[in-house]
């Protein structure tokens, strides 16, 4: 397997718990996770539970009661509540990563660091950068949105760079901070996201167009963002000098597999983070993948069957996440009030609610009653 990120470790653990002997090759010299917080929807939590990582992952996390999206005047665009059967939990990303590392090792997964992968061959050979050829019954490419394995097998259909990008950070918690409601504020083509994450830190994110030079500056241009979102001045003041700007991108593939080689996570379906379902869909697909290849002697056929089962939902989430961002980045700023009225109307339609929450309410393979 190539890549020991969130998706790679999830697939590795799901396979190992079903009796597979799994080795993960990671190019970095040590296992480290960049990032801030992460939204774990119900489908992601259920998937983590199936591989034994849920309890540790959310031990220090905040349980979210509501996601509130507001416009520049503080008017609600929409609100989304959570329940015991439809949860949202928001851990620090490093805590989730450590939980996946520990679950993988407990399941017997071997993790080899400082071991970059060059390519893979459809008959089930992983080729390392040093020329080593490693035959396998299944090769998993979890090597990210710029996957070398995907490119070498010509599985890419389209890579799209979006008009928007993101800066994601952790800020220290302060007395009086909101601890159970996510607030996402929209103003023109900018967004500010506040997410309670733990007893020590909160996750915040800034989103703006790629040509918004002050908006994409790192360290964050606090004056510029305070002017746009004065309500969050107290939080913005706590931001440090870390962080990075990441441009949004999407990846679509002509197929998720070739022979005995399969793509997972961002290598298969990188998407805009607007609905925060990228990792959750990866976890859901991971447990389904392990189930599919463990119940068939014909791995290539099992991979095609798995893709046919999972891809429609994954593609749906990718499209709706992109559309969500389009509402911010493409709507004319001088028509912000009409955007508010439009969103207030459409988010009250039951069909729209079902589309936005289709993934969150999906029951992963192996978790059915």
Q: Enumerate the spans where pLDDT stays under 50 for 5 or more consecutive residues.
A: none
Taking the alpha carbons of the first and last residues, their distance comes to 31 Å
Radius of gyration (Å): 20 Å
Strand order of the largest sheet: 5-4-13-14-15-12-16
Q: Given this structure, which CATH class of the largest domain is correct? A: Alpha Beta
| Strand content range | 25-35%
Tell how many strands the DSSP assignment holds.
18
Mean of residue pLDDT values: 94
Fraction in helix: 25-40%
Task: Give the full name of the CATH homologous superfamily of the largest domain.
Answer: FAD/NAD(P)-binding domain
C-alpha geometry: globular
Tally of helical segments = 13
Q: CATH topology of the largest domain, what is it called? A: FAD/NAD(P)-binding domain
The chain-level structural class is alpha+beta
Domain unit count: 2
Level-2 CATH architecture of the largest domain: 3-Layer(bba) Sandwich
Major sheet characteristics: 7 strands, mixed
Question: Can you characterise this structure?
Answer:
It contains 13 helices and 18 strands. It has helices spanning 6-16, 42-50, 54-57, 93-106, 148-152, 213-216, 222-228, 233-236, 266-269, 278-294, 299-329, 336-346, 350-356; strands at 23-25, 40-41, 62-63, 66-70, 76-81, 88-90, 110-112, 117-121, 125-128, 133-135, 139-141, 156-172, 181-187, 190-196, 201-209, 245-253, 257-258, 261-263. The protein has a 7-stranded mixed beta sheet with strand order 5-4-13-14-15-12-16. Strand 17 and strand 18 form a beta hairpin. The chain is globular. The mean pLDDT is 94. Pfam families: FAD_binding_3. Keywords: Monooxygenase, Oxidoreductase. This is FAD-dependent monooxygenase.
């Amino acid at each position: 397997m190539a890549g020991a990120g969130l998706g790679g470790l999830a697939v590795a653990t799901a396979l190992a718990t079903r009796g597979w002997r799994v080795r993960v090759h990671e190019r970095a010299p040590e296992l480290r996770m960049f990032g801030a917080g992460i939204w774990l929807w119900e489908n992601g939590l259920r998937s983590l539970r199936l591989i034994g990582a849920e309890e540790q992952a959310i031990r220090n996390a905040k349980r979210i009661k509501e996601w509130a999206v507001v416009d520049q005047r503080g008017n609600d665009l929409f609100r989304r509540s959570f329940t015991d059967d439809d949860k949202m939990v928001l851990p620090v990303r490093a805590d989730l990563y450590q939980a996946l590392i520990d679950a993988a090792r407990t399941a017997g997964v071997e993790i080899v660091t400082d071991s970059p992968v060059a390519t893979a061959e459809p008959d089930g050979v992983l080729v390392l950068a040093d020329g080593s050829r490693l035959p396998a019954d299944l090769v998993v490419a979890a090597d990210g949105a710029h996957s070398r394995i995907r490119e070498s097998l010509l599985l890419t259909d389209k890579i799209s760079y979006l008009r928007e990008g993101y800066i994601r950070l952790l800020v220290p918690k302060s007395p009086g901070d909101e601890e159970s409601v996510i607030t996402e504020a929209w103003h023109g083509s900018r967004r500010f996201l506040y997410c309670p994450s733990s007893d020590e830190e909160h996750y915040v994110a800034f989103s703006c167009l790629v040509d918004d030079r002050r908006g994409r500056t790192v360290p964050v241009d606090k004056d510029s963002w305070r002017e746009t979102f004065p309500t969050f001045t107290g939080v913005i003041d706590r931001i440090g000098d870390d962080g990075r700007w990441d441009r949004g991108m999407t990846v679509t593939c002509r197929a998720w597999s070739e022979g005995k080689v399969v793509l997972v996570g961002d290598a298969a379906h990188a998407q805009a983070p607007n609905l925060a379902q990228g990792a959750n869909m990866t976890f859901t697909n991971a447990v389904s993948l392990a189930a599919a290849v463990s119940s068939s002697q014909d791995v290539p056929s099992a991979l095609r069957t798995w893709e046919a089962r999972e891809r429609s939902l994954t593609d749906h989430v990718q499209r709706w996440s992109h559309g969500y961002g389009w509402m911010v980045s493409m709507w004319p700023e001088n028509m912000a009030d009409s955007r508010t009225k439009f969103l207030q109307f459409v988010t009250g339609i039951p069909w729209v609610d079902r589309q936005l929450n289709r993934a969150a309410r999906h029951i992963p393979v192996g978790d059915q009653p």
